[in-house]
Design goal:
Blueprint: H1 3-11, E1 17-20, H2 21-24, E2 25-29, E3 44-47, H3 49-54, E4 65-66, E5 82-85, E6 87-88, E7 97-99, E8 108-110, E9 114-119, H4 127-133, H5 137-144, E10 147-149, E11 153-155, H6 157-160, E12 164-167, H7 170-209, H8 211-231
Parallel strand pairs: 3-8
Antiparallel strand pairs: 1-12, 2-9, 3-4, 5-7, 5-9, 6-11, 10-11
Helix pairs in contact: 1-7
């Protein structure tokens, strides 16, 4: 029995509870009423579609700005919120998620092509756990079923609210995060090693397979030697 299984057996002998997103929190939309000019001379950061699509945790080290007037009614992203892309060309790429796992001291807004989810009780989940949970294969299958369309697929918030997720105890979440973080670190190390090996491979492949250039250089060397012999 693994440590996680032991923790579940000890803390929740009746098993882990599941609830729908509609029971656990509320959805909110991205920026509204913005023109092209508002994005050319902005004063507040906003999270783009690709930021969410490409990162399981929101990248806040950004230079994407939008103009937001004082007192303007726009939804701000909060620590622990889960952000989702609203549409894509395929159902399997709809609803990609990213979680704000850092506490920030400045307003942060959301792209209009995306939407956010905020828990009613933020003590139920670790943001670090949520970033893995919403990219899990089983949850992703549920998310894909909420999308509909022909050439472009869009998320149905009504169906999205019916997605069920587990609510393991915090101690279990901490252990899961610890394990998955370690695997993420190892994956990054392997990718860096593979990239270095690829560059090394490309270098030696070029060196070993440029026969024509080497032959031309040898031919030029022979010609130079021949000319020098003729002079003597």
């Amino acid at each position: 029995m693994s440590k996680i299984e032991k923790l579940i057996a000890e803390i929740c002998s009746n098993g882990v509870k599941f609830k729908t997103l509609g029971e656990l929190g509320d959805f909110y939309g991205g920026l509204s009423g913005k023109s092209k000019e508002d994005f050319s001379n902005g004063n507040a950061k906003f999270i783009t579609y690709m930021n969410i699509f490409s990162n399981i945790s929101v990248n806040t080290d950004i230079d994407n700005f939008v103009k937001v007037e004082k007192g303007e009614r726009q939804n701000e992203i909060e620590y622990g919120d889960v952000l989702f892309t609203g549409s894509s060309e395929t159902p399997n790429e709809c609803g990609m998620s990213s979680v704000l796992i850092k506490k920030i001291d400045e307003p942060l807004y959301l792209n209009s092509f995306c939407f956010g989810f905020r828990l009613n009780d933020k003590k139920l989940f670790l943001p670090e756990f949520l970033k893995y949970l919403f990219r899990d294969e089983q949850v992703r299958k549920q998310i894909a079923k909420t999308a509909s369309g022909v050439t472009r697929f869009n998320i149905s918030k009504k169906r999205f609210a019916k997605i069920q997720i587990p609510i393991p105890p915090i101690a279990v979440q901490e252990e899961i995060v610890k394990i998955l973080n370690k695997f993420t670190e190892l994956e990054a190390e392997l990718e860096a090693e593979l990239e270095a090996r690829k560059k090394q491979y490309d270098y030696y492949r070029t060196e070993l397979l440029t026969f024509n250039e080497r032959e031309r250089e040898r031919e030029r060397e022979r010609e130079r030697e021949s000319k020098m012999g003729d002079v003597e």
